[in-house]
Amino acid sequence: MTSTAETAAATPGTAEEPGPEQPPAPDPFDRDVLPAPPHAARTLLGSLLRPHKPRVAGAALLLLLQQAAVQAGPLLVAFAIDHAVPALRGEGDGGGGQGLLVAVGLAYLLCALASGGLQYAFIVAAARINQRVLLELRGRIYRHAQALDVDFHDPYTSGRLISRSTTDVGSLRELLDEGLQELLAVIVSVVYIVLTLLWLDPGLGAAALGSFVPLALLVQNFRQRSARVYRSRSTAMAAVIVKFTETVGGIRAVQTFRRERANDEEFARLNGRHLKMNGDSLLEMARYVVTSRLTANTAVAVIVLWGAYRVAAGDLALGVLAAAALYLRRLYEPIDHLGMFLNSYQSAAASLEKIAGLLAQRPSVPEPGSPQALPPRADGRAGREVVFDSVSFGYRTGGEVLPPFGLTLHSGRTVALVGATGAGKSTLVKLLARFYDPTRGRVLLDGVDLRDVEGAELRRSVVTVTQEAFLFSGTVAENIAIGRPDATHAEIENAAKALGAHDFISELPEGYDTDVRKRGGRISAGQRQLVAFARALLADPAVLILDEATSSLDIPGEQAVQQAMMTVLRGRTAVVIAHRLSTVEIADRVLVMEDGRLVEDGTPAQLIAGEGRFAGLHSAWRDSLVQAPVPHRDQR
Ligand SMILES: Nc1ncnc2c1ncn2[C@@H]1O[C@H](COP(=O)(O)OP(=O)(O)OP(=O)(O)O)[C@@H](O)[C@H]1O
């Protein structure tokens, strides 16, 4: 098995955009952007917003009203200049100039107050929608990651998953929190302003509309260029995170194999690449801001100049020109913001595409449409019969690993699986635990195809204890109870006692309530194995798969583990990937594998007595071992 750190060293952080020096990704899952149906990102966004339709409509209404209040300002100014001020000077026909000006002033104040209040209400409404959307999205990613199988996780890596639910969700948050509000406000204000200008003076309105052509071209150009830059930037960021998590996840291997310097160099390279991409994106932004401002200011100057000539010629009222100048400023003001918005839009679109690709993946071992219940176990502790019926198997990325074979594992018996590394032992047991489905044939549990057994029932019935004996963060008691969360404290303690784990657990600072911390850093390898066995014993599965630890424990440690193993195997159908002579000797049956084939099958005594591979392996084992006193089979 390759360690995480070695994988990290072997796999360049991300293979999405291989440079000229990088080979193409060997696995379609070893990349950031996964294959997804067309418009997956848009569909995802739609599905996230759909439950909030009424709220979205309410927020849109608030925005429309707020913009109406904001855009009334220049109109009031025009009215004041062209009507209220002349009335005050007594130029108009009727009197009451004072009252008119005060009324205009009050109306202006009212509009300002209304615009502030409405903006506040809109921000609150939009934030409520955003929070719920992001909460749902993060939850979906997490649930989906748990549902996807190891076949997906191995090449995709945990770093990418973390990147999806942090950086990518983060850039979507930015878009929803700031960008989207910005864009909506810009669109609504542009529509209001253009309509008002056209109403005030069709010539000025048409000129303002015409000035949009060069601006639209600028925006379009920026969109295209920044889309490229943003995608590269987010991929570069993901590569940094992947490298970081893989290094930290495999820190033991990193330090054991002195990978620090090589990792530092690789990390510096990835970090540098991210820096460059970030610089590129800032440069694009700067280019856009400068050119768009220049264009907008030129447009304002030209239009106001033309308006001034028309005022001088008596063709346009002064108040209308003043209002037009105010409107033009407001029209072009959001151009910079639009760039910012496009900024977060591009990066959010790239992120959404990646998240949608992840969520579009379907587990390769799907839940059955109409699950079939397993027959009841004969008595509380019986095992189940396992049949490999004309099974053959090949991994998604390779050729056939297990050529067609048939095999029956009798209920309640222990089978030791031996063979050279790469012979296919782990692959065979992965089929039994349904981490993969066979390419051809069926795996039957008491006559029921594993494909028809509901996931939860399968996990209850077939339990795997791996070499790693993974411990989750939490207490020792919680770790033991993982397979049966409803177990009482007494049951947990009994399981630990039956396996001889009670003594060392009691000696821990807080006994069963001691936090094991990540990966059980506080307890030894042998003790971790015992906790894992206690977990299996409490879960009481019909079929137990055991990937025996290859690490050489000390003699008392090994003996304790051996004893515990016999306790946990008793009465179940068990398959043990055996690395120790002592384990093989306690098995009822030994299967020898070679190049994916079962080449020998018999009781340990039969095979030792024969002339086959196992006999040779057995005598080599015997010669190389300083024999520890092995508990005898009938001591079980
Ligand atoms: N996820 C995978 N994708 C592609 N090929 C794989 C995968 N896992 C294992 N293989 C290949 O399948 C073959 C059998 O591997 P398997 O892990 O079953 O062997 P094993 O007998 O358990 O070896 P070991 O004792 O070293 O764990 C090997 O050639 C291996 O390279």
What would the average pLDDT be, to the nearest integer?
81
Query: Total number of β-strand segments?
Result: 10
- Low-confidence runs (pLDDT<50, min 5 residues)? 1-25, 627-636
First-residue to last-residue Cα separation: 32 Å
Count of individual domains:
2
CATH topology of the largest domain: ABC transporter transmembrane region fold
Beta-strand portion reads 5-15%
**Class by SSE composition:** alpha/beta
Instruction: Please estimate the helix content.
Output: 55-70%
Supply the CATH superfamily name of the largest domain: ABC transporter type 1, transmembrane domain
Number of helices: 22
Name the CATH architecture of the largest domain: Up-down Bundle
> So what's the CATH class of the largest domain?
Mainly Alpha
What binds here, in terms of ligands, is: adenosine-5'-triphosphate
The major β-sheet equals: 6 strands, mixed
Main sheet: strand order: 6-7-8-3-9-10
The dominant shape is elongated
Organism: Streptomyces bathyalis
Transmembrane segments: 56-81, 101-127, 183-200, 206-223, 311-328
Biased composition (Low complexity): 1-17
Keywords: ATP-binding, Cell membrane, Membrane, Nucleotide-binding, Transmembrane, Transmembrane helix, Transport
